[in-house]
Amino acid sequence: MSVNAEQVRHVAKLARIAMSDAEVEAMVPEFNNILHWVEQLAEVDTDGVEPLTAVIENHLRLRDDVVDDGNCRDDILKNAPDAQHGFFAVPKVIE
After folding, report:
1. Which of 43, 41, 30 is nearest to 3 (CA)?
2. pLDDT in tens, 55-67
3. What pLDDT, on a 0 to 100 scale, did the predictor assign at position 72?
4. Model-level pTM?
5. What Enzyme Commission number(s) does the record list for this chain (predicted)?
6. Taking a C-beta distance cutoff of 8 angstroms, is the pair 30, 2 a contact?
7. For 30, phi and psi rounded to 5 degrees?
8. What is d(CA 37, CA 1) in angstroms, rounded to the nearest whole number?
9. Which uninterrupted H or E stretch holds 84?
10. Average pLDDT, integer, range 32-52
11. What is the CATH number of the domain that holds 18?
12. Is 46 in contact with 58 (CB distance < 8 Å)?
């Protein structure tokens, strides 16, 4: 599988990244190298290999769940440019 400049532009648009034509052309071989590497991974024989979530077994230390309000709302709201009724107030962004 390979990508072309139009597909790179589409991915950049989805990611909301502005790219010049030169940057797009430079990214085409980069994308193709990544896809080639992924194709190589697909060729690896994994029959009989157990699924693995971590290389090293980590057992998390559990603690009791204790309900706590944090008791720091006022300190946090001091950093807000605008706060109303105990919440951050932000400008409306959706019409």
Report:
1. 30
2. 888 788 888 988 8
3. 87
4. 0.51
5. 6.3.5.-
6. no
7. -65, -45
8. 11
9. strand 83-84
10. 92
11. 1.10.20.60
12. no
